[in-house]
Amino acid sequence: MIINRSLVSTAVLGCIAAFGLVGDANALDGRNAGSLLVYPEFDNRSAIVTLLTVTNVNLDEDEGTTDVEFRYIGKYGTNGAVLPCAESNYTETLTAGDTLTLITNFHNPDHEQGYVYVYAKNADDEPTVHNWLTGNVMTINGLNRFEYSINPISYTGYGDGVLTDLDGDEHLDMNGCEYGTNPDEILIPRFLGQGGQYQSELIFIGMSGGTAFTTTVDFLIYNDNEEVFSSEYSFQCWDRVRISSISGIFNTSFLRDWTNHDPAEIVGSPGYESGWMRIHGHVANSLNKSIPNPSVWAVLVEKVGDKGAADLPFERGERTNGELLPRTNAGDEIDVVCP
Question: Under CATH, which number does the domain 20-164 receive?
Fold first, then answer.
């Protein structure tokens, strides 16, 4: 929707100017608007509704409009068949200051679960620098009960200042040249001991190699008394899995009975166990290529009974080998050199 400035009061225009929404959306440190947004999950299963929003915070009426491409990467078809990395594409237009909210099952009825990435592009379908995109994805479970929401992972667009695909390979490279980079390590500050009503899950996204690659991630899992244990997990493209099925280390029974845990924690509720974890990509393999230290993302969805909570994790370090989304066994064969 385009703002009609003749209908906007002087006070409101002054407020808009004070907030700096017509200018540089990335002027401050912290969570920034971007040209590429990766939403960790959509869920079109029966009785679950995913509400996805993308908002264009550029208010410039002359230059603020942009097309955005939605790419749904599914794991399952609507009939429950496993279709790892299946893709559906859709284009929408966001005018200056526009926001679009959609129910993913109506926007993309072809896939049951997976993730979505959205990027700015021009009329020729070329990905562009438009660092004004923000968003959110919310899961509603049971038709009328809000369960949790997650902000997308936002990547600043660089490129040549207008177009982002510097190497012309039609992939979105998260290498610090075309788009921002991925973390070297994911830090999740808390998980609750699993068992009974506690059935938390991890969402994984493989960010290196592409659709033909299986990614293995390494875990360092800490109890509430600084003891550390290790595990690993492998997946293709995207997965959502109970943490108790990844390793018994996450279980209350293990943390309580087989570690030197702190009996006074959780403070205020010492009968329950907790810990934290570090996750990093170990290797991504296809039939004919191996990528050491691949880029990955992981998001914890904490589940207690029929209630859930989720948030983006903390990050540490940098990896420059992310790309969306090659579809060959060789992955991305063109490495761009940053100018």
Answer: 2.60.290.11
